[in-house]
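Input (structure):
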């Protein structure tokens, strides 16, 4: 969800105004994904590297996220959305916010609709390192470590591999996001800034994905003996 700061800058507003405007987009995209039949939606809200931002901006983000979680918890519950938080391990996260995360996850744990994963204080490299440590602590023999066994030690191992990554604002970087799970993801980079991103833009990205030929390293299917 990229472009909040530039959205504010273009309007001669503080960066915090861009983060505040992003709330509308978050809810709009959650609703659009659910209506489109998306079963797993992940939102990258705050990375392990985002702690390097100015303290005043980080503090504002913590307060904003807490308000958004509390405000929209009833909607998420009513929509049958299961909510989970990927990361959220740093002790710098305010205790009240961490509790709100836990409360929302518990509140929606039995929901059978879309699973919404909010990556907050998330880093793909950290997840891989922690999975390796878990294998070592368990005494898993090296020859027993397969991709499936390794993945079982990642956070939320029931999460399927990522099919589509949408990065708004035209930036074209992975930024340490779910590095294991995005190995064969399709990517789209809409130019629109996140606060201006709407359901129609999201559906355009889905249609782009649907037109992709996903080969997973293979070759095109054969038709009458000739490549299609």
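Output (sequence):
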């Amino acid at each position: 969800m990229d472009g909040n700061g530039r959205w504010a800058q273009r309007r001669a507003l503080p960066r915090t105004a861009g983060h505040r405007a992003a709330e509308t987009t978050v809810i709009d995209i959650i609703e659009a994904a659910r209506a489109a039949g998306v079963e797993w939606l992940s939102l990258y809200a705050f990375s392990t590297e985002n702690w390097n931002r100015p303290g005043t901006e980080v503090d504002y983000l913590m307060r904003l996220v807490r308000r958004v979680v509390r405000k929209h918890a009833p909607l998420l519950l009513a929509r049958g959305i299961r909510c989970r938080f990927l990361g959220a391990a740093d002790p710098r996260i305010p205790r009240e916010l961490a509790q709100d995360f836990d409360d929302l996850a518990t509140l929606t744990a039995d929901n059978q609709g879309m699973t919404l994963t909010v990556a907050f204080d998330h880093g793909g490299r950290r997840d891989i390192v922690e999975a390796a440590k878990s294998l070592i602590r368990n005494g898993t023999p090296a020859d027993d470590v397969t991709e499936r066994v390794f993945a079982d030690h990642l956070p939320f191992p029931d999460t399927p591999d990522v099919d589509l990554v949408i990065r708004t604002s035209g930036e074209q970087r992975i930024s340490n996001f779910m590095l294991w799970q995005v190995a064969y993801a399709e990517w789209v980079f809409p130019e629109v800034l996140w606060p201006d991103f709407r359901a129609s833009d999201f559906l355009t990205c889905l249609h782009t994905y649907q037109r992709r030929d996903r080969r997973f390293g293979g070759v095109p299917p054969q038709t009458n003996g000739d490549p299609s």
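Notes: The mean pLDDT is 95. Helices lie at 4-9, 15-35, 55-78, 95-107, 124-137, 147-151, 199-210.
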